[in-house]
Design goal:
Length: about 500
Amino acid sequence: MYIVTANEMYDIDELSIKEMNMEGKLLMENAGRAIAQEVEGLTSSKGTICILVGPGSNGGDGFVIGRTLLNKSYSVQVVQVVPNDKIIGDALYHKNLYINCGGEVTLMKETENISTYLNDAEIVIDAILGIGVKGMLREPMANLVSILNEKASCVVSVDIPSGLPADEGIHDFAAVQADYTFTVGAPKMSVFLQHTAAYYGAWTDLDTGLPLKAFKASDREVWDEVQFLKTMPSRQLNDHKGDHGRGLVIGGSSEMPGAFAMTLQAALRTGAGLITGATSEKVRSAIAGQNLEATYQILPEVNGALTNKKSIDLDAYDAVAIGIGMGRDPETELLVKTILHQAECPIIIDGDGLFHIKDDLSALQGKQEPVIITPHPGEMAMLMGLSVKELMHKPFYYSRNFAMEHGVYVILKGTHTIISSPEGRQAVNTTGNPGLAKGGSGDVLTGMVLAMIMQGQSIFEGLCNGCYLHGKSADLAVSTNHTVHDLLATDVITGIPKAFKSLLNN
């Protein structure tokens, strides 16, 4: 499933119609019928369904929805919220077809009159405006949207809530607050943005017959269970521990031994063959009893901070993670930069490690082996010299640009975690819940992706699968014996076996 901007969606539709000879009327028919089927699952057989139709494709979809539901004996009221001369082309064709099948169209003359229809409806279908809206709505649409939000008991939006921008970077708008949204063809970028996602309500993307070939130019995708199962390597009968990676985790401090311990546990539970923790003797003695399967390298410390005064044999490892719970002492900064310079295997930089490189991002560039950073929004904003608000208005743009400029992989953590590659490919993870908004969740994720990138898949696939499994474990925990209030990072580790079993059906 791809993620598109408004212009990309227009190009996909145009390619499908002009080069692949798909009739626009057919695409509209497919979209409307698919949405009508979903609406049937939301309504009783007796309630009135009010469909507000505007100009363009969304309005045309609305007429198809009306005809489909009318033919199934539902009580349908279609209200056209624009003058007749605004209904043209394929939308006009489907309007006439709806009328020919016995439907009636009420023309709204004053927006205030719409309240009568909204009050009487069990469900209101918002087929008013599509993906072309940018900025604030003009009247009478602004007033119509305001009344709809106030009066309707249940709103279903077609493709996108009317008034909502499809793209990132737009923060001044007024939009329908939908309870459900059925996206058509592909979800739009604003589905995954912090300041716009809630307007969609519960959303589902519907297959409307657009050819896969038309999407090939897109480099943004949704990472879901299909992608996980397609890319997750299987284990072979004669595998041994060396086949699944020797990982090194560098970090820990007397103030944060737990973070370090959770990264080790998560890496082992996610399938790493061997995991070594490089940390101080104090941390090792505090956590060794919880991590019986891990081995350790003891690093010297000065005033509680790890130093680089003892060399680490990095050649013995297939991947390294650094920064977890290690603190921000200048001595530790030198250690991070030394490891980053010397590592000739994939390296993950997390937590305090990101703080230590923020003033010298050139250290990321020119590496022969992959570098992966795993910032939350505050850390990403710090690295880019932005406010968090600026970053979150355009997270796709900023994370992709950073990845391409510095030649690194970026896992921008959040409600909708975005994974970006140095080539500009991006994916959005679909698992996870608010229970993950707890200290330690990121430390667990670092251990999981460390294990994943050593499992015989591409780095990008490993990062996406690590994020997916992390969220899946949290989702299963909340669906069984936890809630989003009490879920802890250690519960996510405990849930990894159940997540694997659920996905792989072992």
